[in-house]
Structure formats: structure tokens, C-alpha cells
Automatic annotation (TrEMBL), chains A, B:
PANTHER family from the UniProt entry: D-SERINE DEHYDRATASE, ZGC:162816-RELATED
Lyase keyword on record: yes
Keyword Lyase attached: yes
Pfam families reported in the protein's UniProt record: Ala_racemase_N, D-ser_dehydrat
Gene Ontology terms describing biological process: D-serine catabolic process
Protein name: Alanine racemase
Family in the record: Belongs to the DSD1 family.
Biological source species: Pollutimonas harenae
């Protein structure tokens, strides 16, 4: 099943830029959330949108364990690789119904999400016509950052009223609720993340209780984000937790206090190709195409530019960051004083820690895997698109 | 040679998100720059990093015409599709020499770029050892935005001194100079772009004259960016002009006054999947993964968020922009007054004009081609990575 390719190369033999994954760090990150959640009675349903790789995902859980995806292409791919219990966590639209039906015919146990009566009505009608039974979660808005029905809203029961009460007969049936406290990415302290986790939990549980009072079993209460999963003090009433970035971590998570810099498993290997010595600039061959345009730390207390520069062993070089980017050029400079930028010789290899693992990984077609040294252990392919 | 797939579908039959290219608009854009440059004695060497597609590139020029690329993967791909006169416009590093040699063995007439003595020395040595003859342009810094040797710098002649004077014998030989006035993207008026174009031209020509005074033929003077290519009043002394974004155009170019909104050939088709009515938000299934994280208009006089919302025919809906994005969710809202956001029904198809054609196109594996209507004319694949 694996496309894994074993190599005997070193990082220094690569053409750059290249996406490097330290699997030793990754395995620690995976273990950390596993251990943390084991104290609660919840299922981890990892979000595989971050890694889009069967090789990475097998380190999280064996095929067959529950997963979350953000596109039907991810659902299709992970189904082909043996995962069939799949939550598609973006509101379903009618132009995806046929694809959903095709995935179910291939054996997917898909769960869908919606937050409005139009989607519930059209999905229910489609499922009746096609004699398909599909579980549906109503998305709950617990933090105001995106989609979802507020836990208190009358709309919650209106949407529920368009769905079946169980899988006893074919159709779209209400399996419960899901929420994602994406606002946790804007928290400025771990106390704030704890509070956000409680808000996320309480809102989802409250919505589920309203549904149960109205006669629905609503067995599923699905919550999660990487920050709240790591700081929730109670998960009472929650049945499953979703998180994705925690596998790799990144500078945004480091800025939030969810991880430290040494927990970041992902980096972009690049080569020094020139200098602007008078400006204190070191120019590399990893621009925004290799890092993505994500500037997620720009609004945090420490702006990391396009990323933190490390040596080839992954050790950060003090105060050296990627301050700007062209498509295929990176500009590396001392954070505070360009005069202190070390003029690393042309040909020097650097590893740049990314702001956001999801967006940087998406710029690459695979992971070059190491485990604490410069030895390349494997090349793991990943995919993109829809 | 073409991977073109002819279809008889309509835009409304697509699963979303999808990248839409209006080839009628594109052809106009291509013709416009062709016509403009025909008044000057220069060669157009289009930058294909924007489109990364043989199908698009054939509309610009037949295989065999001169091209510019930003990665050796682009060089490899376009060589396979018949283009052999290729400028690789990013400073060369030693870990790419073997790839360069392999491309030359396959028939590429590659031109390389560098701006420092270390690269010149190592490349010259490699070429001597391998008995390879490769033309080199010294990158000139005419605007302070990135790489390159200032036109007046003593370094120019130091670098030149490490290169051969002609292709009469094997080795790396100095074919001339190249510069890219990327600072033109930050101009706030067309007058400023005109001035930047003259600065770009004058700096490159001056550098070439210094080299000629030192005994080098330096036949090539390569300049260009989409803004300066459209506003240069003189190209005296210039031998070739490079531009890439002009084929598609985008909101950044519109903000600069280089094109109008109706000249933008690229858009992302998406579907309304929900609302937050009290906030005036329409939620779609095109997030930053479909648009990219590029916020290039954020520093312009009109911030277009993640893009301008159009109806399925590509007509902008007044003041409707994509104000925020999650990975697979877009938030559409009235630019000034959320209360005026039209609550477009769930299922409505929208087309979002991108800030930056290069970065948005890079998020997709192909173009769905239309020509002024909703009829899909073709699917053109594109590639990414290194």
C-alpha cells in the first residue's frame, strides 16, 4: 500500500528547495496528543488535511481508524488507502452529492456537515431519491469565526427537523453536532486557549442537549482545533476531538505557546544563492512558492516573517528570519539588526521553519523524511487539489 | 504534444473549487503586450512561471521561441514540450549544476544567472571540468528589491573576470546582463511605473556598457516585469523583455493601473455553502487553499481581501469581496457595509478574481478553459513543485 521510497542519501545531496519532515519530532508530537487525550473518554479523529499523505497518516493511526478531511479528494485518497470512517468537515453543497454517493458505493462511511435549511433539504431529498443513508452533523458556531449555527439559535431545530432521527431508514439522519474553535488561533495566552476550549466544549454540548431534548439521539459531539485539544481541561459530553497541525506543529503554534520551536517537525531546505551585503541580506532559493504566502505570525507578538532560519541540522540560528520573499527567492536577515546578519557563504544549506504547516506543506509534492540526523530515511509523496 | 482534453460541459456542472481561465481575455492580453513591444526592437522572452502549462504557453509563442523560467523543473517540462531557448532567471547554485548539465545534454540552450564571485567561480570550474559551454547573465540590481549587482559596483567586473568572453571555447561565458524591476509592483501611479521602467532600462544598459568597455561583447540586455513592460517609453539598448503575469493579469495589476478588472482572465469558481446572516457573511467552499494566502492588494489603495466576487459569467458583483479565508472556507462580504451583502442562496456559483495570478494558479493542477461563456472548452493541466 505504501509509496514509500527508501534512500541512502543525505540532505546535502538534495536539489533545493525541498520539504523536510523530521519523523522523530513528528512521532513525539503524535504521542503527546495521544497521551493527553487518553485521560478523557474521547476518540481522536485526526484532521488529515495538514499532511495529505498515507505515510504520515499511518504514523497517527492504522487504516480504519476515524479521520477528518477537508476535501472529497482527501476522502477518496484515504479511502483508497484503507481509511473508511471519514468526516468531511466542510459544509456540503449540492454539486458534491454525486461524488459523496460514489464514495459511499466504494465503501466510505462518510459523515457530512451542514448548517442551514437549504443544504439539509436538498441533501435529504437526494438521499431519499438515491436510497442512501448518510449521517449528518450540524455545524455549531461556538466562536464566531466562520460557519455554523449558534448553540442557542432556533435555526438549530429547524435544520434538525429536515433530517432523520436515526439510520433505521434510508436518508440523511442527524448524528450530532460538530464545531471548530478556529478563534483559538488568535488567543494570546494559554489561559485564553483554555477558556476557548471550554467555550467550544460547552457550546457543542449545549447544542447536542437541545437536540436530545427535541427527541434526537444525536450521539456525536465532535470538537477540536490543535490549540484547544492541547489545553482543554474538561471534555465532558464530547465524544470526539479533531486536530491536524499538531502532527507537524509550526511557528503560529509556537507563538500561541502550544509547542516550542524544537517541536516543529517541518522545514524547507534551501540554498544560499547570493547576498546584498550592505543591506545585511542573505538570498536563498526558497521564496514564497516554497514557503507559501502564509504570514500567520504577523499578528502575533513575535512576527517571524516567512519563517525562522535554521542550520542544516534544524538548529535555529539566533534571530535569523526570512524577512521577505519573491516567488523563488527568499531574503534572510537578522531580526533586529541587519548589520548582525551572518553572511553565510553561497551554497550554504538552511532549513526554514514555517509559519503554518498546512499551507507550506501544500506547496510541495512530498516529504523528504529524516529522523534527527541528515540521513534521508524516505520520500513520502503527498497530494493537493480537489 | 498537447494534453488538452475537449469537453462539452458547462461551468455549472463542475465540482468546486476549480480554477477558470477565460482564453478570450487571455488572448487579448497576449496580443496587447505583443503589439506594444512590436514598436521596439526587442525580443519578448515570456516568463512561464505564471502559467506552468504548455497549452497556455503555446498561445504566447510556438515551441522554440525564447522563454524564461523560475525553476529547473519548468525548464525540464518546457524542453520536453519543444522550447529549448530557456533563461533560468534565479541565481544558480552548485547543487543545481548536475541538473543543468543534464538539461543541456537533452538539447536545452540554457542561459544561467548569477550575481557573485563564488557562484561564478564554481560554475566556471564545473563547466571547464565537464567541457560544457553555457551563457551567463550577471543579474543587475536596478531597484534594490532583491538580488543583483548595482550597475556601478566594482563587483560587476570582478564577477565578469571569472567568466569567459565568448562561446568560442567551452566554459561559462558572459552573455550579458539581466534585471527585474520588481519594485514596480509597489508603484502608486503609472507615472511612477514609467520612471521605474526607465530606471530598469538605464541601469541594465549602463552595466552592459561597463562590461563592453572592459572588452566583453555582452550581447544580451534582458529587462522586465509586467508593469514596466507595459509602460516603458524607451527600450534603447535593451535586447529582450521578460513578463509573465500579463497573460492572465490579476487584482494587483489592476490596482497598479496596468489592467482593468475585465482584463483578468483567471478566477476561482466556488459554491455558496452557508451564511452568517447577522454578520452579512456568505460562506463559500473556496478558502485560502484555492486562492492562496496572497494578500498582494493589502498594501494598495484598494484592499481586495482575498479577491473580488463575480457571478458565474465573470461579472463583478458591486463591492462584494472575499474578506477572509479558512483553509477550505471563504467569507464573502460587502466591502463597506455588511448589511448590504446580498444573501446569495446556498448553491450559488461565484467566480473570485485573484490578487496574484502566480500564487493562485499554483494552488491548482489545471485550468478549466472557457471563452466568454459558461461552455467549457478544454481542461489544460499545469504542474508545480521543483
Amino acid at each position: 500500500m505504501s509509496n514509500e521510497v527508501i534512500t541512502t542519501m543525505q540532505l546535502s545531496e538534495l536539489e533545493t528547495p525541498a520539504l523536510i519532515l523530521d519523523s522523530a519530532i513528528m512521532d513525539q508530537n503524535i504521542q503527546r496528543l495521544h497521551d493527553r487525550l487518553s485521560q478523557f473518554k474521547v476518540t481522536l479523529r485526526p484532521h488529515l488535511k495538514t499532511n495529505k499523505s498515507a505515510d504520515v497518516s499511518r504514523r497517527i493511526g492504522e487504516p480504519g481508524t476515524p479521520i477528518t478531511v477537508s476535501t472529497l479528494k482527501e476522502a477518496e485518497y484515504f479511502l483508497q488507502h484503507g481509511w473508511n470512517d471519514i468526516l468531511y468537515a466542510v459544509g456540503i453543497a449540492a454539486n458534491k452529492f454525486a461524488h459523496v454517493a460514489s464514495l459511499m458505493q466504494k465503501g466510505a462511511r462518510l459523515t457530512l456537515v451542514l448548517d442551514n435549511t437549504e443544504s439539509a433539504r436538498t441533501l435529504a431529498q437526494f438521499c431519499r431519491e438515491q436510497a442512501i443513508t448518510v449521517p449528518v452533523l450540524i455545524e455549531i458556531d461556538t466562536d464566531g469565526h466562520r460557519s455554523g449555527v449558534p448553540p442557542e439559535a432556533p435555526l438549530l431545530l429547524e435544520v434538525a427537523g429536515l433530517l432523520g432521527r436515526s439510520d433505521a431508514e434510508s436518508g440523511a439522519w442527524l448524528a450530532g453536532v460538530m464545531t471548530h474553535a478556529g478563534a483559538s488561533y488568535a488567543c494570546t495566552s494559554t489561559e485564553a486557549i483554555e477558556a476557548m476550549a471550554e467555550q467550544e466544549r460547552a457550546g457543542a454540548v449545549h447544542a447536542a442537549q437541545r437536540l436530545r431534548s427535541a427527541g434526537y439521539a444525536a450521539p456525536v459531539v465532535s470538537v477540536g482545533s490543535t490549540p484547544t485539544a492541547h489545553f482543554a481541561r474538561s471534555l465532558d459530553g464530547v465524544t470526539e476531538v479533531r486536530a491536524g497541525v499538531y502532527v507537524f506543529f509550526d511557528l503560529v503554534m509556537r507563538g500561541l505557546g502550544v509547542c516550542s520551536e524544537s517541536d516543529i517537525a517541518l522545514s524547507v531546505l534551501c540554498t544560499v544563492i547570493g547576498h546584498q551585503k550592505e543591506k545585511g541580506w542573505v538570498i536563498t532559493d526558497a521564496g514564497w512558492m516554497a514557503m507559501s504566502r502564509d504570514r500567520g505570525t504577523a499578528t502575533q507578538s513575535v512576527d517571524q516573517g516567512y519563517g525562522v532560519a535554521c542550520n542544516i541540522d534544524g538548529q535555529p540560528i539566533p534571530d535569523l528570519v526570512m524577512i521577505d520573499a519573491n516567488q523563488e527567492h527568499g531574503i534572510i536577515c537578522h531580526r533586529h539588526d541587519p548589520g548582525q546578519t551572518p553572511m553565510l557563504p553561497v551554497g550554504t544549506l538552511l532549513r526554514i521553519l514555517p509559519n503554518h504547516a498546512c499551507s507550506t506543506a501544500a506547496q510541495h509534492s512530498g516529504y523528504v523524511v529524516v529522523a534527527g540526523t541528515q540521513d534521508i530515511k524516505a520520500n513520502w509523496p503527498r497530494f493537493s487539489g480537489w
